Amino acid sequence: MSGPTLDGCPARAGGPTDVLTVASVPSGHVYVRHLSDPLADDGVRRLPDPRPCPAPSDQSVWWPPVMLDPGWVADNHRSFDVFHVHFGFDAQPVDDLRALVQTLRRFGKPLVYTVHDLRNPHHVHRDAHDRHLDVLVPAADALVTLTAGAAAEIARRWGREPFVLPHPHVVDLPSIDAPRAARAETVVGIHLKSLRANMDPMPVLETAAAVINSLDGVVLRVDVHTDVMDPAGDRHDPALAQWLTRAHRRGLLRLEVHDFFSDDELWTYLRDRIDVSILPYRFGTHSGWLEACHDLGTVVVAPSCGYFRDQRPCLTYRNDERDGFDPVSLTGAIVGACGGQPPQRPGRDRRTAERVAVAAAHRRIYDQVRG
Hints:
This is Glycosyltransferase subfamily 4-like N-terminal domain-containing protein. It comes from Pseudonocardia dioxanivorans (strain ATCC 55486 / DSM 44775 / JCM 13855 / CB1190). There is one protein chain. The chain is α/β, with parallel strands linked by helices and 371 residues long. The chain has two domains: 20-169 and 352-370, Rossmann fold (3-Layer(aba) Sandwich); 173-339, Glycogen Phosphorylase B (Rossmann fold). It is built from 14 helices and 14 strands. The strands form three sheets. Strands 2-1-3-4-5-6 form a six-stranded parallel sheet, with helices on both faces. The longest helix is centred in the C-terminal third of the chain and has 24 residues, at 347-370. The relative contact order is 0.15.
């Protein structure tokens, strides 16, 4: 861990002396669930996410986060010691976010904010997210982020020094050491999901298809959600759908169209169906997908935008909002990924030890801001 020090909050020996309750926004996200100590009681209790009414779907039962409502804080301030924001404020009006901060101050509740995204991958333009950051970053009693690069940007933009704590494992601990499937060919995967705003897939697809079809024993697999290919889908892209269909028919790639993967389906895809995962992003900051690949031993080819290369080992190619896309660098990264040695997997023991340390650091941060 780098960044500011946790003065006056030494690591606890023999377990916590008191229980501390955190209103975590949200608590159901996998990142937040894996902030707890998997081996011992760290004395931190995270309130369950209040279910929105009506709740959208079982895949996002915490969305939109009820806890971001200043009225919820006013009604429930006696039930928590620390308020910790992670995700979920994308659609929050800036004035409502300011009211949330003011309500926390009125009731003497400290605010911790983990800066996952400095550039929101769901927003075409950065202005709205920047306005949210301009409220949360200065107001937080403590900041956390995942990489030294992100911490440096936060220091440069707001003059704040966050704690830098690594992203905990994403794959469940019992599945981390499961062996990878053996294959005679190397499969390079590009998963387009439902075409988030930070994706401009065609340049990446065209370059990847050209280079991969020139390599012996290497194939390209492209996954995409049904709503992109279906003319009635909310995210339908007719030009992309047509290109993918034609490329599949010509044998340039294997096209897989399906709905949202469950966790188990995603682990199977990353571990047993592909060897290399290309992230087709134009902007972003950190990645849970990259973290899952790290857990399972899948090689990642990541863009130069954001701080992916700081987060976990990966090959990189140039693709960002300032300098654009560079096909030469992507070609080199793909060749390197297909010809190199498989990455060393962290393994369950190392990931468990890392999670224990991250949980202890969060407990000390909570004690410090509460004190």
